Q: What sequence folds into this?
């Protein structure tokens, strides 16, 4: 989240995550231009500050706007008066919108427009309202602006020159950039509000365009205090979060040397190897789609704005897969093969080889095996779902499932799977089943649910004592068992602390050893292997590939192995025609709502984009598709999930049961720690049929669907069930939370959802402000 704030008050609406006027690397002539722009703005604001401070000290804040004028304190300045300098330097900020639109900086155009626009509104008010110019708030606003902007533009300048906004900018500038808001945002907001309110009762301002427009000018200028009221506090709190994040990055320890599965070296910066994810992502996707369409592959390779335009290439690839089952499998195999070729594995001694090469041989080290049998009482073999403060099972659960299906929150096939589990309680007897959890401690992993049902869990997670203390404690209190890798024999551990210290492994660096250990573990026992590990950014791709190395060999070399994946609703999926029709129906209804019309118009079609798409023709008929990809999640996230899709369809084609179902949008810690996502989640249920679920709900219902997949021979997970296209595996058992049947694409409702949330939270404040505004208006207009 960023505070690219053109003004102390204007960056609250949707923080973007990046400073507005600095680019990531120095490249002429773009960086030369940005250096000149930021330098000029910095000097301009410094000049405004040089006039404002002496005037405020000598004659007070109410005279600041007149500083440097013929009738102002001290006479004209060497470069003109403050009013003119303020007008020109603040108007120059309009170029920031142009910068964003042209891609010179990485900021959303809409957000930048809102940020700069609020400043321009305040500038317009003070320029045309004599009364607002001579009250204390004018000086407070101007000085607050200048004190923010001088270090802001200087910071951008330093960031461009040094090439690193986080660690290489001078610390005093860095500190000022992320600390001044604590004082200057409140003073700036206060000053701007006084300017708006003073202009609202200034006859000169109200009659700027003639008496007949006085009322319109009044409501126009009073709309800004109404907007500011609910937005000020969230904006300040957001800045506090940004400060904490920035300082954490500034003083973060340098990363350890690369080990295990890593991106290949793509360049060198300051003597340090650079391992960029972009060329790798493009190479893998190009190889995948190139297996069936060389022209589409060429377009991937030529894409210059991969970070923001990758989605169209994902869509194009899935469309190519719809041509035939053979095409779908060729794309999947080519993509996976390319990933094994381009990713590298760095051994402890620094030796580098491809992932393909390292996984072709046995590991040099081996794990010992730890085992804990739980002592807890066995629970009833029933599917129980914690929901809205209670726990539902049996007929109550079936009734709730029907409500979800009828509303459109889940697909009928998901509802059928959950109900089948209710009707077949024997499916929930897991005492003779073995589940391998890659990422056992994951927020969306079913570890606790499986242990409660008496399952035998083979847990793979990081070698951190805290993790294993928690997992083993759960296991001991359950009726199940936990098996886990150890760096030394269990009998050598004298205490629990010793056991926790040697438990676990690293999926990145010990991939071959984990694979070997699992291949030899519990011979003859069928394994169900779930890939649940998740990491942010490029690390997600690496951990997904590590899990794939393990699941590939287990599914191909160990008989009766089944695979499990949790798909995300924010991905591209083939969906049932019924879901497409429902999305179309909802669009016809919501597209007529005034709020939706307004948001779509203001964003020029960017917000609230139609969800239902035209079908794609292929062998076996028409295929319907929903684009749930969120651009903000980035190409690394979608590549990591796509590799799981590829392995799922490949393994199923080779006779493996693959349960790969879409889980709903879930309020996990990793999601809601991003306040923008948390706000959006609060507003999304406005768009029927969305419902955001708690993690425990999601884990329980997804376990029910999984058990149906493992036990029902008619399930789409079973390779004996015929599908028109391999990618239809993801069309069934979807508990998508409303994504497939909503009127609009999920990536286009975020901003509208955030505004709905703030509208609800700010309703009391809005009502109060409106009441005050009506009273003030009545007084000004002479009604009272």
A:
């Amino acid at each position: 989240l960023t505070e690219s704030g053109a003004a102390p008050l204007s960056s609250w609406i949707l923080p973007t995550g990046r400073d507005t006027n600095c680019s990531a690397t120095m490249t002429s002539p773009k960086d030369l231009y940005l250096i000149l722009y930021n330098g000029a703005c910095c000097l301009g604001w410094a000049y405004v500050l040089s006039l404002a401070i002496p005037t405020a000290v000598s004659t007070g804040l109410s005279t600041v706007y007149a500083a440097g004028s013929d009738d102002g304190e001290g006479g004209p300045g060497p470069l003109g008066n403050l009013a003119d300098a303020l007008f020109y330097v603040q108007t120059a900020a309009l170029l920031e919108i142009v910068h964003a639109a042209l891609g010179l900086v990485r900021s959303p155009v809409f957000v930048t427009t809102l940020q700069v626009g609020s400043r321009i509104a305040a500038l317009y008010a003070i320029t045309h309202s004599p009364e607002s110019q001579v009250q204390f708030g004018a000086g407070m606003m101007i000085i607050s602006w200048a004190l923010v902007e001088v270090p802001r533009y200087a910071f951008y300048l330093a960031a461009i020159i040094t090439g690193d906004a986080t660690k290489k900018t001078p610390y005093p500038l860095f500190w000022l950039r992320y600390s001044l808001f604590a004082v200057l945002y409140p003073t700036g907001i206060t000053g701007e509000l006084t300017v708006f309110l003073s202009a609202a009762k200034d006859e000169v301002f109200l009659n700027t365009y003639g008496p007949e427009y006085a009322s319109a000018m009044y409501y126009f200028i009073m709309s800004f205090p109404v907007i500011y009221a609910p937005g000020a506090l969230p904006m300040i709190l957001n800045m506090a979060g940004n400060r904490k994040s920035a300082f954490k990055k500034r003083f973060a320890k340098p990363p350890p040397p690369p080990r295990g599965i890593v991106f290949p070296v793509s360049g060198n910066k300051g003597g340090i190897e650079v391992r960029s994810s972009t060329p790798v992502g493009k190479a893998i996707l190009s190889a995948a789609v190139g297996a069936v369409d060389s022209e589409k592959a060429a377009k991937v390779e030529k894409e210059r704005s991969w970070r923001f335009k990758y989605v169209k290439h994902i869509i194009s690839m899935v469309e190519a897969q719809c041509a035939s089952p053979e095409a779908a499998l060729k794309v999947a195999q080519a993509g996976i093969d390319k990933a094994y070729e381009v990713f590298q594995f760095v051994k402890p001694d620094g030796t580098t080889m491809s992932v393909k090469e390292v996984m072709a041989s046995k590991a040099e080290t081996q794990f010992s095996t730890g085992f804990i049998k739980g002592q807890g009482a066995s629970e009833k073999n029933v599917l129980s779902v914690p929901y809205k403060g209670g726990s539902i099972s049996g007929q109550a659960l079936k009734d709730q499932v029907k409500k979800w299906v009828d509303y459109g929150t889940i697909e009928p096939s998901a509802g059928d799977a959950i109900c089948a589990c209710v009707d077949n309680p024997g499916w929930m007897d897991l005492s003779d089943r073995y589940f391998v959890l890659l990422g056992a401690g994951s927020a969306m992993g079913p570890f606790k649910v499986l242990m409660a049902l008496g399952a035998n869990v083979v847990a793979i997670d990081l070698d951190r004592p805290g993790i294993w203390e928690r997992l083993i404690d759960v296991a001991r209190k359950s009726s199940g068992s936990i098996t886990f890798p150890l760096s030394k024999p269990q009998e050598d551990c004298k205490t629990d602390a010793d056991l926790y210290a040697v438990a676990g492994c690293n999926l990145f660096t010990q991939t071959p050893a984990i694979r070997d250990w699992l291949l030899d573990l519990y011979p003859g026992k069928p394994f169900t292997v779930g890939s649940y590990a998740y990491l942010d950014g490029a690390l997600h791709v690496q951990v997904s590939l590590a899990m794939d190395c393990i699941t590939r060999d287990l599914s191909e070399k160990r008989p009766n192995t089944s695979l499990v994946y949790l798909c995300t609703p924010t991905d591209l999926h083939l969906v049932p025609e019924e879901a497409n029709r429902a999305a179309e129906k909802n669009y016809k209804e919501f597209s007529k709502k005034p709020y939706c019309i307004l948001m779509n118009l203001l964003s020029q079609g960017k917000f609230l984009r139609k969800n239902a798409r035209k079908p794609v023709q292929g062998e076996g008929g028409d295929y319907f598709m929903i684009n749930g990809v969120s651009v903000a999640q980035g190409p690394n996230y979608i590549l990591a999930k796509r590799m799981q899709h590829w392995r799922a369809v490949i393994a199923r084609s080779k006779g493996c049961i693959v349960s790969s179902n879409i889980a709903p949008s879930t309020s996990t810690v990793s999601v809601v720690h991003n306040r923008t996502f948390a706000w959006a989640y609060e507003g999304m249920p406005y768009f029927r049929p969305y419902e955001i679920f708690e993690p425990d709900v999601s884990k329980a219902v997804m376990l029910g669907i999984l058990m149906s997949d493992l036990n029902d021979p008619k399930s789409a997970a079973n390779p004996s069930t015929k599908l028109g296209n391999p990618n239809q595996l993801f069309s069934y058992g979807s508990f998508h939370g409303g994504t497939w049947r909503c009127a609009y694409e999920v990536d286009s409702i975020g901003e509208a959802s955030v505004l709905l949330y703030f509208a609800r939270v700010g309703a009391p404040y809005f009502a109060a402000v409106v009441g005050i505004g009506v009273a003030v208006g009545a007084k000004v207009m002479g009604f009272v």
